[in-house]
Amino acid sequence: MSSVKLSDFSIPASACIDVMARNRVDHVVTVPDWVQLALHQRLEEGLPGVRLVGCSSENQVVTVGAGLALGGKRPLLMMQNQGLYNCINTLRAVSLDAQMPLVFMVGQFGREYANLGQPSTASRRTMVRIMEPLLNAINVPFLCLDSQADLVRMDEAYALAHARRTAVVLLVSAPMAWR
Amino acid sequence: MMNLIEACAVVAKQRPSDSLLVATMGAMFAFDRIDMEAAGGDASRRPPGRISSVPLMGGAAGLGLGLALAMPERAVVVVDGDASLLLELGGLVTVANARPDHFLHVVIRNGTQFSGLGNLATLQPSLSFAGLAREAGYTHTEVIDSAETWARRFTELLSQPGPTFVELMVEQVPPRTGSGFELSEMPDLQFSRMGTELTALQQWLGTTP
């Protein structure tokens, strides 16, 4: 059994919503993610000023997000690590070749609790372990959300995405909290 | 049946000047030709408001949906290919669920991939894309097989509330490959034009961050 206390790493959905508002997020485009389930439920209940756009695949999350950004909106793209692996070619086209700034929030599904607070590259699970090396390999910046204090990195992610005209990925380490 | 140029010419000639057009690769080349002819060969006089999902098969409907949600006051036309749409069939459900108005999703149904080059057959030639779109929840779906009907119906179809889907039955372009044929290198433009068009579209829309 792991001695890790999950609540040290879980980001409250309500805190995430506050930071989304500060970053003027007006659309959340998503294929839902187990790690971010608490936030998904809050979004599904409805948030003033935020439209939830559900998609059938993560490729559509990227293209719908790109269309929204092209139309002057501030989308946040939410998915799971498996989903990001699924849409690498679309990310390549939209954010690397066409240089559309987009911010992704990606749950590290499958991360063992014993790995929280440790490098994700030390995870025993491929799905978790290869994420950061993959993003480095394709030159997509990423920032880790390991606890509530890291939420300020969403501000950094939007600034970086627009400054460099690229995708920026926020990696959510632990299941979000229902508070 | 109509040919690809006839199918795209209806869109090029009849879409409102403030509308947005998203096209996949086969249609993109047809629009290039139509627009350049209309502009007398002067690329700077080509009509604005167009972006190509290239090289990105399957991406057109999503791009169009995002634009439609961001700018509901503008009509959006998506010209998809049958092989491209097969890559993201679930996108029909995504579009239908979001219910954009004045959103016309057209699929060029010619039954081929690499049309006019190698003409590989698309899967399931009897598949009804219009039927799938109807089941997915598009408000209105139609199959059109003549250029005259397409030209007559276009404006009304584009003005419909809710997403509209049209399956256009289009002739195959004869293949060019054969013994001794060599493929030309893909030009850089193919990989840079989506970004160039994206920047131009942002400037035209006034949405540059």
Unreliable stretches covering 5 or more consecutive residues of chain B: none
Strand content of chain B: 15-25%
CATH superfamily of chain A: Thiamin diphosphate (ThDP)-binding fold, Pyr/PP domains
Order of adjacent strands in the largest pleated sheet of chain A: 2-1-3-4-6-5
Average of pLDDT of chain A: 97
**Low-pLDDT windows of residues of chain A:** none
CATH fold-level topology of chain B? Rossmann fold
Structural class of chain A, please? alpha/beta
CATH class of chain B: Alpha Beta
Which second-level CATH architecture of chain A applies? 3-Layer(aba) Sandwich
How far apart the termini of chain B lie comes to 44 Å
Estimate what percentage of residues of chain A fall within beta strands. 15-25%
Number of helical runs of chain A?
8
Number of DSSP strand runs of chain B:
8
CATH superfamily label of chain B: Thiamin diphosphate (ThDP)-binding fold, Pyr/PP domains
Mean of residue pLDDT of chain B?
95
Throw out a few tags for this protein:
heterodimer, A: 179 residues, alpha/beta, Rossmann fold, 6-stranded parallel sheet, 8 helices, 40% helix, B: 209 residues, two-stranded antiparallel sheet, 42% helix, globular
Give an overview of the whole structure.
The complex is a heterodimer of chains A (179) and B (209). Chain A has 179 residues and is of the alpha/beta class. Chain A has one domain: Thiamin diphosphate (ThDP)-binding fold, Pyr/PP domains (Rossmann fold, 3-Layer(aba) Sandwich). Chain A has eight helices and six strands, in the order αβαβαβααβααβαβ. In chain A, strands 2-1-3-4-6-5 form a six-stranded parallel sheet, sandwiched between helices. In chain A, helix 8 links the parallel strand 5 (142-145) and strand 6. In chain A, helix 3 (58-70) packs parallel to helix 5 (88-97). Chain A is globular. Chain B has one domain (4-171): Rossmann fold. Chain B contains eight helices and eight strands. A six-stranded parallel sheet of chain B has the order 2-1-3-4-8-7, sandwiched between helices. In chain B, strands 5-6 form a two-stranded antiparallel ribbon. The longest helix of chain B has 17 residues, at 189-205. Classes of the chains: A alpha/beta (179), B alpha/beta (209). The A-B interface holds A 27, 29, 51, 53-57, 59-60, 62-73, 75, 89-90, 93-94, 97-101, 162 and B 51, 53, 55-56, 58-71, 88, 90-91, 93-94, 97-98, 191-192, 194-195, 198, 201-202, 205-207, 209.
